[in-house]
Amino acid sequence: MNLGAIDPFLATHGRVLDRRWLDALLGRGDAAPALRALAGYRNEDGGYGWGLEPDQRSPSSQPIGALHALELLADLGPAGGPAARATCDWLAAVSLPDGGVPFSLAGAAGPGVAAWFAGADVAASSLHLTAAIAEAAHRAARHDAGVREHPWLAGATRFCLQRIADLRDVSQAMTLRYALLLLDALDGDEPAAELRRLAALLPASATVPVAGGAEDEAMRPLDFSPRPGTALRALIDPAAIDADLDRLEGLQRDDGGWPVEWARWSPAGALEWRGVLTVRALRLLVDNGRVDAEALRAG
Predict the structure, then answer these.
(1) Which InterPro entries match (predicted)?
(2) Residue 299 CA to chain centroid, in angstroms?
């Protein structure tokens, strides 16, 4: 790997948000600059839009924007708590009576918006997205009691557990991914039993093709289990994890960044995703012991 090429890549290809996010992850300063950068994507209603999700470029507040916000806020630790609580307030306002959130809300369509956002049913709760958001919120909740005790999170978690019980195969690879991540974040006998049941559906390679995705697009071992030391990681073959870490390391391009492995929907989105994916890749490689954080901090 070429660690020295990463900061130049983000300087020439990345959003300010992603550069500040990496600085916060590496301890190059505090969380305040990343929080200020994130605030630029926030609407007056408390939700997030404006391309925070690079393939959802509508200005309108959307559930996918809340997901990206909570992922960052969870990484920022206690400093992210107030913004994470406010995001839960917004989610409570847009959730459906069953506790879930739709994949998209009204106003999702527009230039540069991926078809799966523009064409989503605004009147039906999505297990895929609700589980993803709830998992990020549970990680943020480790640092903030207000998130942990928020009624939206309790209702969303109940909705997900009820719907997860109906999953019987790996045909919905991304829904399976976020269901497993959520279960891995929860305590209790019921989530633990469901985690074992769903993990048993994975093939030995822990690689599941994404139906309707780009050629070779798949959910892979690190998508299902990004962090070591969890209950789910113990249910995946270590050889599959090691092979996926090798693959991830090998994806770094000559310019220092990581590629987008799915369909592109706009020139800006394709560029911005590379910055996001570069920071995500580095976080995975540091967390899993493949990259020394001090060496990366030094560039």
Answers:
(1) Terpenoid_cyclase/PrenylTrfase
(2) 25
